[in-house]
Structures are given as C-alpha cells and as structure tokens.
From TrEMBL:
GO CC field: cytosol
Keyword Ion transport: no
InterPro entries registered for this protein in UniProt: Mrp-like_CS, Mrp/NBP35_ATP-bd, P-loop_NTPase, YlxH/NBP35
Region (Disordered): 1-40
PROSITE patterns per record: MRP
GO molecular function, one term: iron-sulfur cluster binding
Pfam families: ParA (PF10609)
This protein's record includes keyword Iron-sulfur: yes
Sorted UniProt keywords: ATP-binding, Iron, Iron-sulfur, Metal-binding, Nucleotide-binding
Protein name (record): Cytosolic Fe-S cluster assembly factor NUBP1 homolog
Length: 381
C-alpha cells in the first residue's frame, strides 16, 4: 500500500526552506584537473581509474598505499550526507539509447505521485538529459549552510545533474575519469538531499568510471555507518528486446555480479509500438490515402482501432530468456509509446498524464506494476 499523502504542514515547511535558500551567482563548480580536485589520489582507486592513464604519477600511485585519513573523511562525509536516505537504486544498462533516463524519470514521477520522497542523481555526466525529462531546463542550483540544494521538481521530487552546472545548455563536457569521479563524490558529500525514501541514480551506458565510483563511494559510506546492504539496495537494468542491446546488457548483469550489486530486475523498454490510427499516415505508391483508410477502418471496426508492431523484434528467447539465464526477475514490458516520449519531452509523469488513454493503457499499467514490485522488494516502512 502506498504511504498516506504528505501533510500540508510538511509541504509548506519544504517550500519555506527552499524560499530561504540563496541562489548562487554562478553554479557550483566541479573540481578542475588543474587544481587536482578531480584526482582520485588518496582513495582506493588511485592509479587504477580510467582517467589515470597518461598521468606521470600513475605507477607511483598504483604501487603506494592510499591515504587512510582521506579515505576515512570521505566515508564519514558520504555517510553523513546519505544517512537520511532509506533506499538507493542504480538505473543501469550496458547499451546506450535503450531508455535508462526515460525509465528512471518515470519511476521517480510514479513513486513521487504515490507520496514517496524521491531524489534523482544524474551521473550521466557527458550527456545529462534528466533536466529535460523532469521539466527543469534552465533551473539553478541553490546553496545553504548545509550544502548544495538539489533542484525540486515538486514538493517530494528533487534532482541534481551536471546540466545545472554548465554555462550553456549545449556545452560539451570533455572530462577525464578523475574529474568525473570528483563530481560524483561531490554529489554524495555536498548535496543536502534531506530525508528521502528513494534515491535513484541515473547512469551512462557501460561499466566504466562513473559506475565504479558510484558503487565504491556509496559502499564506503555504508562501511562508515555500519550499513549491512553495502550502501546500494539494488539495480534496475534496462534493455530493448533485440540482441544488439541484450549482448551489452548481459555485460552489465555480469558487472553487477562482479561488484555484488543485487539486481532487482530487468525492464524491457520499447517492447511494442502501439498507437491510434488518428496519429498515423497511410500511403500507397506515394499517394496519401490516410482519410480513405481511416474511414474504412471506422466503418468496419469502430473508432478504437490501434496499430501495433514489434519494431525492435526480439531475438531468440528474448529478454525473458536472458533473465532466466542470469536468474533475475523480468519486471515488465514498457511499450514504445509516442505519449511516453511526449511526457519525457515535456517533463511530465506518464502514469498520471496518460491514465485513461487507450493507446497508453498497457504502458501505464506496466510501469505501475514495475513500481509495485520495487516497493514490494524494497519497503520503506
């Protein structure tokens, strides 16, 4: 059962707190490579991170012991910053373009609509799309005495992203690994997340520095506060049904096994394309016959005709077969729905905005069931 709605007094208190925050004259700056702020020297990753390649001190760092005082301070900072976060989830996929940010944003919107307090940490540092999907483009990070304040989408949904720190929306983020690691560390030590039921971490494709850093930093904070779950409650892995995607996602599942992150399940995105005939165009030999086809379908079958196609045709035993191979749950199929795309473009929640739309019925139900299963597996009390 979802928790009761947030009391109005709590909502007003949150609004009052945000109103008291002081806007920064310039966005908070991530550590620069020139200053060494993004270097992982003194941590467990020194000399081993992707960005250490080409550094003249790589071999020396790799062969020397990390600074125990710095490690202890990092653990304490992360433990303090995340101590009021009940559940921490990674949204992963080895493949780009399968809809990780789509699934992450819509999980966050749906959980938020049920009354849960949700934070989203966008660590897709070079391609941060979360602000667009949450309707927060152009917003500014604030700071207070307790640190950076994330951008609030609504009273119980907040977001932090590299995009809020760029001077221009289309600026390229050309950073080496250590600088990325430094920013992820700042997200986990300097952001005032407050009390959250869920923190969702939206990751880039692959199994590289951003993933390793996030896992290690969250785990180090859990070591400090004695957490038994390793700092991460689980991962939701996103794929599309074709083999090109699943071959990369299998690598992500192996990554989770290697770093001991429990996989809560796999979401099959863009499973089936389904839309009404009113949104389609029909041609024959280059001639537009849309009106004739619509009239014929309406006369013969009525107004509720939907078009359906498996654009991303599944390979072999499909996503279910991959889940069986890795002994993980298949959480559900989310259709390739133009209404879902529109919600992401406009920064809206799909399950709320498209409730009652026939062509979106399956997708809305699937996403609600996925959230039901996550809440069942990770109760927040």
């Amino acid at each position: 059962m979802p928790p009761p709605p947030i009391p109005s007094a709590a909502i007003e208190a949150a609004k009052k707190k945000r109103a008291s925050l002081t806007p920064v004259t310039a966005p908070p700056q991530p550590p620069t490579e020139e200053e060494g702020g993004g270097c992982v020297h003194g941590t467990e990753m020194q000399g081993k991170a992707e960005g250490c390649e080409g550094c003249p001190s790589k071999n020396q760092c790799a062969s020397s012991a990390p600074n125990p005082q710095l490690i202890q301070k990092t653990r304490l900072d992360i433990s303090t910053s995340t101590s009021s976060i009940t559940r921490k989830l990674l949204i992963l996929s080895g493949k780009g373009g399968v809809g990780k940010s789509t699934i992450c944003s819509q999980l966050a919107f749906t959980l938020s609509s049920r009354g849960y307090s949700v934070g989203v940490m966008d660590v897709d540092i070079c391609g941060p799309s979360a602000p667009r999907m949450f309707g927060c483009v152009g917003r500014t990070i604030h700071h207070s005495s307790s640190g950076w304040s994330p951008v609030y989408v609504n009273e119980n949904l907040s977001l932090i992203s590299t995009a809020f720190m760029l001077g221009e929306a289309d600026a390229a983020v050309v950073w080496r690994g250590p600088r990325k690691n430094g920013l992820i560390k700042q997200f986990l030590t300097e952001v005032d997340w407050g009390e959250l039921d869920f923190l969702l971490v939206d990751t880039p494709p692959g199994t590289s520095d951003e993933h390793i850093s996030t896992v290690q930093y969250l785990r180090s904070g859990a070591i400090e506060d004695g957490g038994s779950n390793g700092g991460i409650d689980g991962a939701v892995v996103v794929t599309t049904p074709e083999e090109v995607s699943m071959s990369d996602v299998r690598k992500e599942l192996n990554f989770c096994k290697k770093v001991k992150v429990p996989v809560l399940g796999v979401v099959e995105n863009m499973a089936t394309f389904k839309t009404s005939t009113e949104k389609c165009k029909f041609t024959k030999e280059g001639k537009d016959i849309t009106e004739d086809v619509r009239k014929l379908l309406s006369e013969k079958f009525g107004e509720d005709v939907l078009l359906e196609s498996d654009i991303f045709a599944p390979s072999g035993e499909g996503v279910q077969g991959m889940c069986d191979q890795f002994k993980v749950d298949h959480l559900g199929k989310v259709n390739l729905d133009p209404n879902l795309l529109k919600c992401c473009e406009e920064g809206k929640g799909y399950t709320e905005s498209c409730k009652g739309k026939k062509e979106s019925e399956e997708g809305v139900n699937a996403l609600n069931k996925i959230v039901d299963e996550l809440v069942r597996k990770l109760p927040v009390g």
